[in-house]
Amino acid sequence: MNLKRYIALIGLMLTASYGTISAQQYMSIVCAGDTGVAYYVQGTEGSSFVWNVQGGTIVRNYGDSIIVNWGTVPAEYDLRVQEFSKYGCSANPVGGKVLVSAPLMELGENIEICEGEVTEILPSGSFYSYLWHDGSFTPNFIAREEGKIALTVTDKYGCKTSDELFLKVNPLPLVSLGRDTSLCGIETITLDAGSDGVQFNWSTGQISREITVFEGFQRISVNVTDEFGCVSTDEIIINSCSTIDHFRNMPTGFTPNGDGKNDVWNIPELQTFPQAVVEIYDRWGLLVFRSESGYSNPWDGTSGGKDMPMDSYYFVINLNSPGLDPISGTVTLIK
Fold first, then answer.
1. What's the pTM value of the predicted model, to 2 decimals?
2. Domain 3-101's class?
3. Which of 9, 100, 238, 304 suits a disulfide with 218, CB 3.0-4.6 Å?
4. What is the mean pLDDT of residues 260-271?
């Protein structure tokens, strides 16, 4: 602390031996919590002095001067001194007002935001200067990154005060509905909005964590809110059934030789079409096989109980599903 800056002079002038004192008062301005502030008077040689200081503590008393540590409560306080001459004469007490100054500033409580958000931190009050932790000096601070935020402000007397808070940035809830897909027949898919949320709002109007989706073109989205109020969104497109894609891995041949391997023309993709009917024709266009609905008994290479020769056969699959055309092609019976 530079004591010279805070020296306050209270001048006392004594006349003759009657102890008459005239005084001149000066205002002293200090900052709350300042220590080692010196005050002195000029009186008659041999005099003693009685000091009275409000709002501060005299830590050194040298008679005609004192050292004061000021308190932390800002206000105007009286500082007075009375001189007593060596003959026992007393002068009128003299003194002045000491302004103990301190900016009253608060940043408030710690703050939480969600990833991607920003928040404005605006301290209470108006001040001569501002200094934030990052070196900026604006009256407000725009924050988006987690960490400690600190501010020091200065009033018009050069007095300072500081405050700080912690900004926590909460991650967004993790939500992934997966890649766009398509459904056929009685296929369904369960969409899971994830375990991070406490509230789920689907574009379908449902509010559960999981929903079941059926065949047909749909654009489905979900908003997931977590315990901190952070929100994430994801979307998935359910395309209309594409029979070309759905049956792209359908077997093109089978070997009904009784070895227990590939003895029938199995079509796993038909499990999603319980009403499908499969028809097999030979090269002359004669019907050699027609399944029951659902193709529960795959073609074993016979017709009317007789083994059919090795050849390529033409097939027609009627899916019996609204909006889907029959599928046709050839399958090879291998012996």
1. 0.68
2. mainly beta
3. 238
4. 95
